[in-house]
């Protein structure tokens, strides 16, 4: 039987036995080898947004209150790699990291043995679907109170065709009834065990997923389908890596803002922040805002302190000043940059050199010099790019190139520095009202620009978060009027920031 029932002399009087699972177990299937990605390591170990894909996936189940235990089925030869990720990330719900089988079905059998005989809920999930939402996990578990098996799927946006051996169309199913399957797939443990027990007697047994096993061998068992999400993609092909990275970027733009000024004060009091480019614009606003919340902020710039970010000796002197004054450096922020327009062939050598030195060599120099200090505090390096990084434009060739370089620098350093606990992120604000922009474009309508104060607020949110390897878009919400300025205050207190200032476009 697939559903627990009581028996008696009168069949019509039978009533289902209430389902009382001992626990809910998430089984993360991480047996892939990365062949289609052309990697030398399993694809689940590839880093996206500063962390291995499998770590992102495990973190979803770790945070889900519905999940009691996590078991990882890892690719052969990489169990130790997965175990190290679990230990470093402090994933307390992971109880076992074991080697998977040669096939998906063999891995499921190993997982069932690892779960043990007690009745429980089991969720099977692909390790390379790192953008799973807590909503999907919750709905899967809730559905198991009513159904023995649950699948996750989304509507098909494409017409699906069926072909014969000669690649000629034989059928076009009605699209409104079609769904594209995702994971997790969830089961009451007696149901999935019984399906696999029956399948053992079939010499032609083969299935690509566990719901398929239930459908074939327990045909009377309803399989509930809940809505998945377009973001819950499976990283299989090279293009998926870029898509997942962009989706993480969009999610990071919605990083939660702390609830009130006391929370910011708790996070920032006693911390030391060094701001390169802290005299004007975003750097100045960030300096003032962080100080109101109790941080010790040291702004440096070419105009006020004579600090040239491209000069290693200037950077070293700035960092030494802050460290000797406070004994620590928690965050290093680099807002310094210049905007030079002009056709590349017509730009003089001095202008080209200045733009490259300030916009790229400077952040590289600061990163190298700041690492020893940030290692001590497990701190963060925060860089700034521009919407120009996504696509170069005529007369902005070098500027766009340097901004794209900072994005790559962010992603690379977040990977390099993960082992020493240093985070690296990059803010990508839309057109912002700063002195640099005014010099380049003259006066512009106020309602078309983002206020520097709003970018500073979003920057502060990133500094007190645990994000790393992220490019955070800062955009004005559609329909916003002119962005108000942050009111001056003599001490820590609430700061008014425009609604939606940190939302993605």
What does this structure look like?
By secondary structure, the chain is α/β, with parallel strands linked by helices. The protein has two domains: 11-235, Spore Coat Polysaccharide Biosynthesis Protein SpsA, Chain A (Alpha-Beta Complex); 253-474, Rossmann fold. Helix content is 36%, strand content 18%. It has 14 helices and 19 strands. The strands form five sheets. The chain has a seven-stranded mixed sheet, sandwiched between helices. The protein has a six-stranded parallel sheet with strand order 13-12-14-15-16-19, with helices on both faces. Strands 2-3 form a two-stranded antiparallel ribbon. Strand 4 (69-74), helix 2 and strand 5 form a beta-alpha-beta unit. Helix 5 (189-199) packs across helix 6, helix 9 (281-292) crosses helix 14 and helix 10 (312-326) packs parallel to helix 11. Residues 1-11 and 481-505 have low confidence and may be disordered.
């Amino acid at each position: 039987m697939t559903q627990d029932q009581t028996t008696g002399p009168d069949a019509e009087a039978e009533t289902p036995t209430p389902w009382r699972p001992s626990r809910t177990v998430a089984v993360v299937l991480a047996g892939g080898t990365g062949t289609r990605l052309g990697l030398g390591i399993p694809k689940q170990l590839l880093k996206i947004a500063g962390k291995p894909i499998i770590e992102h996936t495990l973190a979803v189940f770790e945070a889900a209150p519905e999940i009691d235990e996590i078991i990882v089925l890892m690719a052969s030869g990489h169990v130790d790699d997965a175990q190290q990720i679990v230990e470093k990330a402090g994933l307390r719900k992971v109880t076992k990291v074991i080697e998977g089988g040669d096939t998906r079905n063999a891995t499921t059998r190993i997982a069932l043995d690892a779960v043990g005989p007690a009745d429980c809920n089991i969720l099977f999930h692909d390790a390379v679907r790192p953008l799973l939402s807590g909503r999907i996990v919750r709905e899967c578990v809730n559905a198991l109170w009513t159904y023995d098996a649950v699948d996750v799927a989304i509507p098909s946006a494409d017409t699906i065709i069926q072909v014969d051996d000669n690649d000629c169309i034989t059928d076009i199913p009605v699209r409104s009834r079609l769904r594209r399957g995702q994971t997790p797939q969830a089961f009451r443990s007696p149901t999935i065990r019984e399906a696999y027990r029956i399948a053992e007697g079939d010499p032609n047994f083969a299935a690509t997923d566990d719901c398929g096993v239930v459908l074939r061998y327990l045909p009377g068992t309803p399989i509930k389908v809940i809505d998945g999400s377009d973001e819950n993609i499976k990283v299989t092909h090279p293009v998926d890596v870029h898509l997942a990275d962009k989706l993480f970027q969009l999610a990071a733009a919605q990083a939660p803002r702390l609830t009130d000024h006391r929370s910011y004060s708790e996070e920032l009091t006693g911390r030391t922040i060094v701001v390169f480019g802290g005299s004007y614009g975003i750097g100045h606003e960030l300096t003032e805002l962080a100080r109101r919340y109790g941080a010790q902020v040291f702004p440096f710039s070419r105009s006020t302190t004579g600090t040239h970010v491209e000069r290693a000796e200037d950077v070293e002197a700035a960092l030494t000043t802050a460290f000797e004054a406070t004994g620590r450096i928690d965050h290093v922020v680099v807002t310094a940059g210049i905007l030079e327009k002009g056709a590349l062939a017509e730009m003089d050598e001095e202008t080209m050199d200045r733009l490259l030195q300030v916009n790229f060599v400077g952040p590289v120099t600061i990163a190298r010099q700041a690492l020893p200090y940030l290692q001590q505090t497990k701190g963060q390096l925060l860089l700034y790019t521009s919407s120009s990084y996504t696509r170069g434009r005529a007369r902005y060739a070098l500027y766009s190139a340097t901004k794209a370089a900072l994005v790559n620098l962010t992603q690379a350093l977040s990977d390099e520095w993960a082992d020493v606990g240093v985070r690296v992120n990059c803010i990508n604000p839309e057109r912002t009202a700063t002195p640099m922009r005014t010099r380049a474009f003259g006066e512009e309508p106020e309602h078309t620009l983002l206020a520097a104060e709003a970018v500073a607020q979003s920057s502060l949110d990133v500094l007190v978060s645990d994000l790393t390897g992220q490019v955070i878009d800062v955009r004005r919400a559609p329909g916003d009027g002119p962005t108000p300025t942050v009111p001056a205050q003599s001490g820590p207190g609430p700061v008014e920031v425009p609604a939606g200032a940190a939302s993605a476009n």
